[in-house]
Specification:
- With 194 residues, the chain is of the alpha+beta class.
- It has helices spanning 29-32, 94-101, 152-162, and strands at residues 8-10, 20-24, 37-41, 45-49, 54-60, 71-75, 82-87, 115-120, 135-138, 166-170, 176-180.
- The chain has one domain.
- The chain has a 6-stranded antiparallel β-sheet with strand order 6-7-5-4-8-9. Strands 3-10-11 form a 3-stranded antiparallel β-sheet, with no helix packed on it.
- The longest helix has 11 residues, at 152-162.
Length: 194
Amino acid sequence: MRKIPTLFVRDLERDYGRHVTGEVTPGCEWVLAGEGVPTRKFDGMCCMYDGARWWARCEVRDDRFPTAEFLFLEVDERTGKSVGWEPIEHSRLARWHAEAIAPATDGTWPSFQSGTYELIGPKINGNPEGWGFHALVRHGIVPLVNPDPITFETLRDALVRERFEGIVWHNPDGRMVKLKRLDFPAPRRDERAD
């Protein structure tokens, strides 16, 4: 899974590009045209199942690949880090991933299709999702409804109000675009919704 473009251009003049401007990233205009399906972005760690083996998304500096089995994808232009996949058993996520794929208390095993998942739970990223156990959530599984109209302001307001990590739009042709709550500055106290 390569880096997904952000819907709006990052403001590189301030905050080291942490926040976005109202300008649409070239090639992402299809989202504002209402194309594609918006889905909930979960806040955890990205994992991939290739049908036989599990992998953890990994970013490293200076091509210091963690294992000989590291699957290189690309270099992140913004951070300069190499992005790829490492075998889950070599990852710092191995223990929590093992809990997520363990059989249920009734002895049934979870079923996984090839694809990408978000590993979430108590020991992942401070547990922003608030789950009491470790789980794998397939990417693109929770559809959302676009605000009407789809604009910088309506998307910002929806993400601040809903308090989840973000949105990923899936175009039928395979393209994806994301937008995260943290792409916007925190609202001032007088702007917060009750």
